[in-house]
C-alpha cells in the first residue's frame, strides 16, 4: 500500500520539531546551569554566602536572609552585574532590627533674678503641665521658660523622686543650677557667706530622699568690703591686726609675711573680698607695715587709698621724717599718705572731756558724759533708742560748751560701733575713741575698724579691744549626724541586739525596749537620711536569706513609723549573707552576722571637702562604710 503524498512531509516536519525541542531543552539547561554557577561564584567572592541562588529558565532567583538592608541591596547590585538585572528576582529577607533603646531622660533647671528656665527630655508619663505649674508656684518664681521635650517611653525608676526633690530644693535657692536624672541630682549654687553655705548644705542634705544620689557644689560669695580696710598696730602688747583685707590668696600671703617680719606672732588672717581700690594693694600694705616697724610703735590704717600712719608718743622727729619721706616716695600711685606725730601734752593740762556709753549683757545702755548742745543730746538719745530700743536706754549726759566741732559725729560713730557688740563700752575723747567688748561674730573687729576709718577720717585715732565668743547653741537644735551615729552605737552596745522570732521578720518582745531607745534618739536627730540594713548568716539558701534580710529591715522601718518617727528619708535594704562581719564557721560568728545596721547617708564630696557637680557618678549604689557615717545595730536568733 502506497503512502499518501502528504504524510511524508508531515512526518519530516514533526521529526525536525522534535529535534529542535530536544536541542532547546539542552540549551536552556546549559544557560540555567551557567547562570547559577556564575552567580554563586560572584556572591562567594563578595562574602555573601548567606544568599541562595536558583536558576529558573532565564530567571535567577535570590533567596536568604540578609543581615541588614544595605547588604541586601549590595547582593542585588552584584547579581545585576553578572546577569541582566531584569532576570534577577529578589526573594531575600532582612534580619529584623533590634528595638530602639530608650533615651536618657534628664532635665536642667536654671534659676536667677529673671526667672526660671527648664530644658531637657522627660518621659511623656511625667506631667509637663504640672511641673511648670509647680515651678510657677515657687516663691518669687518670676517668668518660667518651658524648653522641655517629651518621649513616649516608660518612666525610669527614681525619676519622679529626683524631680520632686529638685523642685523642693529650688524653693531654697534664689540662684541655682539643678541637673536631674533618674538616679541623681546635682546642685550648683552660691551662698552669701561661709555660715550660710554650711546651713544651706545641711538643709539640702536633710531634704534629699535616701534613694537620690546627691551632689552639692555650694560656693560662698566673696564679700564686698567697703571701705577696703587694713589696720596694723605695734604697742607694748606686741604687733597685731585690728583689720586686714585682701583681694586674693597671694595678696593675703604677702601682707601676712610683712606683718610677721614686723613682729606679728600667732595666728592671723585677712578677709578676702571684693572692692580693692588698686591692684597694688598688697605692695602698699607691705610698705606701710614695714615703715611702722621701723618707727617701732604706733598704728597704720589703710582705708581704700588713704593711708594714715600714727607714730607713738616720744618718737624722734628725725626718724619720723626719714620714714615718712621714704614711704611717700615708695608708695604706688593712687595711695595718699597722712602721717601724724603726736605732740606731748603739758603736765599742767586739764583732763580731756569725755563721753561714755556702756552696754550690759541684758541689753541695757547707759549714756554719760558731755554733749555739745541740747539738739546734739536729743539726737544722741534718739539714735541710741533706735539702735538699742527705747526701753533699754538711760541718758545721763550734760551739755558743755567749747567741745570740738566733730564731737557729735564721733559720739554717733561710737554708738553705732557699740551696737555691733553683745556687751561692751565706748569712750570718746577729742583725741581718741576706745571701744571694748564682746561679739558673737568673728568678723566684727574688721567690720568696726573699717566703719570707724570711714566715719572718723584718716587722721583720727581709735582703739579697739574686742573679743569673740561662740554664740550659744539654739534650743531644740537637732543633733548633728556624728552625734546621732555615736548615740545610736552607744544604745546598741549597752542594751544588746535587736532580735527576731526564728525564721521570721517579727521583732522579739524583748527587743522592743531597744527600739524605743533608738526611736528616742532618732526623734532628736531630726530629718536625717538613714538606711536600715538587714544582714543574715550563710545558713540556708542565698535567695531565702536575701528575702529574710529585706523583710527584717522593712519590719524595723515599720516599727519606727509606729513610734511616730518621721521616716520619709529612711530606706530599708536587705543584704542577705553578702556582707559578713565574722566567720560563718562558728555559732558565735553566725550570731554576729545576723544583725541590723543603721547607716547615715551623706552627700558625696570632692577631695578638697567641697561638693562638685562634675564629680557625680552616673548611677547610684547602696552606701558602704566608706561613704557613710554608720552606727551598727544588730539582729539575733535563727533565720
Q: Can you put this structure into words, describing what you see?
A:
- With 639 residues, the chain is of the alpha/beta class.
- The chain folds into five domains: 9-94, Histidine-containing Protein, Chain: A (2-Layer Sandwich); 106-220, hypothetical protein tt1634; 229-340; 355-468, hypothetical protein tt1634 (3-Layer(aba) Sandwich), CATH 3.40.1520; 481-632, OmpA-like domain (60s Ribosomal Protein L30, Chain: A).
- Helices cover 36% and strands 25% of the residues.
- It contains 15 helices and 28 strands.
- The strands form seven sheets. The chain has a six-stranded mixed β-sheet. It has a six-stranded mixed β-sheet with strand order 21-20-19-22-23-24, covered by helices on one side. A five-stranded mixed β-sheet has the order 13-12-16-17-18, sandwiched between helices.
- Helix 9 runs parallel beside helix 10 (407-418) and helix 10 (407-418) packs antiparallel against helix 11 (444-456).
- The longest helix has 39 residues, at 7-45.
- It is elongated and about 170 Å long.
- The N and C termini lie far apart (116 Å).
- The model is unreliable at 346-350 and 608-639 (pLDDT under 50).
Amino acid at each position: 500500500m502506497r503512502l499518501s503524498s502528504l504524510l511524508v512531509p508531515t512526518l519530516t516536519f514533526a521529526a525536525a520539531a522534535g529535534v529542535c525541542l530536544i536541542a532547546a531543552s539542552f540549551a536552556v539547561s546549559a544557560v540555567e546551569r551557567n547562570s547559577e554557577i556564575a552567580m554563586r561564584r560572584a556572591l562567594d567572592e563578595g562574602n555573601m554566602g548567606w544568599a541562595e541562588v536558583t536558576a529558573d529558565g532565564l530567571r535567577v532567583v535570590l533567596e536568604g536572609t540578609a543581615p541588614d538592608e544595605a547588604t541586601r541591596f549590595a547582593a542585588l547590585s552584584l547579581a545585576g552585574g553578572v546577569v541582566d538585572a531584569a532576570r534577577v528576582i529578589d526573594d531575600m529577607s532582612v534580619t529584623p532590627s533590634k528595638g530602639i533603646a530608650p533615651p536618657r531622660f534628664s532635665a536642667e533647671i536654671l534659676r536667677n533674678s529673671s526667672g526660671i528656665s527648664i530644658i531637657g527630655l522627660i518621659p511623656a508619663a511625667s506631667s509637663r503641665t504640672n511641673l511648670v505649674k509647680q515651678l510657677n508656684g515657687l516663691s518669687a518664681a518670676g517668668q518660667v521658660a518651658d524648653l522641655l521635650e517629651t518621649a513616649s517611653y516608660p518612666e525610669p525608676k527614681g525619676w519622679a523622686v529626683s524631680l520632686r526633690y529638685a523642685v523642693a530644693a529650688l524653693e531654697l535657692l534664689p540662684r541655682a543650677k539643678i541637673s536631674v536624672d533618674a538616679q541623681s541630682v546635682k546642685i550648683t549654687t552660691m551662698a552669701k557667706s561661709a555660715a550660710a553655705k554650711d546651713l544651706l548644705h545641711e538643709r539640702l542634705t536633710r531634704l534629699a530622699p535616701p534613694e537620690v544620689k546627691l551632689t552639692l557644689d555650694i560656693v560662698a560669695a566673696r564679700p564686698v568690703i567697703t571701705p577696703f580696710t587694713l589696720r596694723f598696730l605695734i604697742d607694748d602688747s606686741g604687733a597685731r591686726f585690728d583689720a586686714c583685707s585682701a583681694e586674693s590668696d597671694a595678696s593675703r600671703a604677702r601682707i601676712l609675711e610683712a606683718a610677721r617680719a614686723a613682729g606679728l606672732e600667732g595666728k592671723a588672717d585677712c578677709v578676702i573680698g571684693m572692692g580693692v581700690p588698686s591692684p597694688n594693694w598688697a605692695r602698699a600694705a607691705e610698705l606701710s607695715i614695714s615703715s611702722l616697724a621701723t618707727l617701732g610703735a604706733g598704728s597704720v590704717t589703710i582705708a581704700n587709698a588713704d593711708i594714715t600712719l600714727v607714730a607713738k608718743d616720744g618718737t624722734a622727729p628725725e626718724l619720723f621724717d626719714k620714714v615718712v619721706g621714704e614711704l611717700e616716695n615708695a608708695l604706688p600711685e593712687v595711695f595718699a599718705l597722712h602721717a601724724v606725730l603726736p605732740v606731748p601734752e603739758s603736765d599742767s593740762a586739764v583732763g580731756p572731756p569725755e563721753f561714755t556709753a556702756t552696754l550690759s549683757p541684758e541689753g541695757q545702755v547707759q549714756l554719760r558724759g558731755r554733749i555739745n548742745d541740747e539738739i546734739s543730746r536729743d539726737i544722741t538719745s534718739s539714735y541710741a533708742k533706735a539702735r538699742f530700743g527705747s526701753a533699754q536706754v538711760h541718758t545721763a549726759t550734760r551739755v558743755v560748751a567749747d567741745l570740738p566741732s566733730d564731737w557729735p559725729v564721733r559720739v554717733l560713730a561710737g554708738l553705732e560701733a557699740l551696737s555691733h557688740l553683745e556687751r561692751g563700752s565706748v569712750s570718746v575723747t577729742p583725741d581718741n575713741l576706745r571701744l571694748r567688748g564682746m561679739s558673737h561674730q568673728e568678723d566684727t573687729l574688721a567690720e568696726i575698724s573699717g566703719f570707724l576709718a570711714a566715719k572718723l577720717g584718716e587722721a583720727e585715732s581709735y582703739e579697739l579691744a574686742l573679743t569673740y565668743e561662740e554664740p550659744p547653741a539654739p534650743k531644740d537644735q537637732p543633733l548633728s549626724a556624728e552625734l546621732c551615729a555615736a548615740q545610736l552605737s552607744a544604745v546598741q552596745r549597752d542594751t544588746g541586739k535587736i532580735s527576731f522570732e526564728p525564721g521570721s521578720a517579727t521583732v522579739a518582745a524583748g527587743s522592743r525596749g531597744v527600739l524605743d531607745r533608738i526611736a528616742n534618739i532618732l526623734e532628736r536627730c531630726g530629718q536625717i537620711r538613714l538606711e536600715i540594713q538587714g544582714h543574715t548568716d550563710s545558713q540556708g539558701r542565698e535567695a531565702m536569706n536575701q528575702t529574710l534580710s529585706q523583710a527584717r529591715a522593712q519590719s524595723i522601718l515599720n516599727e519606727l513609723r509606729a513610734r511616730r518617727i518621721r521616716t520619709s528619708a529612711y530606706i530599708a535594704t536587705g543584704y542577705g549573707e553578702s556582707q559578713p562581719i565574722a566567720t560563718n564557721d562558728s555559732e558565735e560568728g553566725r550570731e554576729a552576722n545576723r544583725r541590723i545596721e543603721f547607716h547615715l547617708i551623706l552627700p558625696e564630696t570632692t577631695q578638697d571637702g567641697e561638693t562638685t557637680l562634675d564629680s557625680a557618678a552616673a548611677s547610684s549604689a547602696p552606701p558602704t562604710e566608706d561613704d557613710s557615717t554608720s552606727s551598727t545595730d544588730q539582729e539575733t536568733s535563727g533565720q
